[in-house]
Prior knowledge:
Elements: E1 2-6, E2 51-59, H1 64-74, E3 75-84, E4 89-96, E5 102-109, H2 114-121, E6 126-130, H3 137-142, E7 153-156, E8 163-167, E9 171-174, E10 197-201, E11 207-211, H4 213-226, H5 249-256, E12 294-298, H6 303-313, E13 344-347, H7 350-362, E14 386-391
Parallel strand pairs: 1-9, 1-10, 2-5, 2-9, 3-7, 12-13, 12-14
Antiparallel strand pairs: 3-4, 4-5, 6-8, 11-14
Amino acid sequence: MKKLLLASAVSVALFSGQTYAAVPASVKAVPLINGSVDFSTTTGIYKAGNTVNEVWISGSSAATPFLDKAVVNDAIGTVYKYNDSGKKAFTYVSESSLTPGTFNVVHKRDSGGSITAIKSAKGTQTGYNDTSSVAGGLAAITSNCLPVGTSGIASCTAVSTILLTNHTANANFSDVDAVQFESALNGNLGAGYTTGLANTSVATQTFGFAVNLKLRNAMQVAMIASGVLPGTCATTDIETEACMPSLTSAQLTTIFGGAGRMTDWNNLRWGGAANQSLFTAQSAANKPANRDVHICSRTAGSGTLATANIKFENACSSTTEAIQSPSVLTIIPETGGNGSIKPYHATTSSGELESCLQAFDTGAASGTFTPYPGVVPTTGNTFRWAIGILGTERNPNNSLPY
């Protein structure tokens, strides 16, 4: 019986039980980056005599922050994380504390989310980045690395196309039970597809709804104007818990719902003595030029999306409405009148969803996400209010605008 890991926590235990063996001279050198150890193509970690332990992980992009922590805890010196944003595959390298000359490499495939883990556990090989395919080798990769941040990780992006290498995963991470993806709401794998998979719960993860910073601030202004939040929230208590803006479960269901549900942010209200709408409560400088409700969400097959469907749309029932119909999971431009449509932006990973929220907060492209495909606004404030679904451990230092 094959096993599928639920939620997401990874530790050095992934390396235990593997056979550690010296790499033969015939193994190709993978061009990594010079740092605390020599990662050059001729004397790198894949050279003859070194012990290289590799783990291949597929599935939940929401699990990646847990993986980051686990790898950093294992490492001596810098951890290098390679991200080709188009494929959402990662490679980590750390000098293991086990034995000098022993290196641990963790390959992580985020693209597709949890449903990728389900398919992998059923025997479909998953594509991972092959860093040895980068044109220019070591020089190309080292030219595009950021300094090590507080996370202890140096993030690197290849400047050339990285090919995919299919590989069988050692671990497959899903945010919810595999059977949830048999539903048409969450991936439509078909009845009985997950038969034979054993779900092993290893951790609990908390998901939440995230709004970009400009929407968060606008919500706070409207709730103060309505009298729901005290006036001091506009001055001295802005960032306290008592002054945090909020949305009810009913409001979230309406915002994320499909046909006939809210398309205009001006329809969002919190009651109170003045009962101010979100849009009219704002100054001109804080109003987006278009009131369309922008949704930053995930494609069907995402465990994050499945979790939200289960919690807010009763997706365990056979007769229910998904957060949005799979047929409209596309990135679309603003069309029609002000506040007339609900552009639903389907992203392939939690990282890309973060880029979606950030892009609408600034009105400019972020990462691989372009906020206005086809029609670029040229007048008025180009930012937009947007909402999405994410694991709550992301953005811990509030360095991203959501």
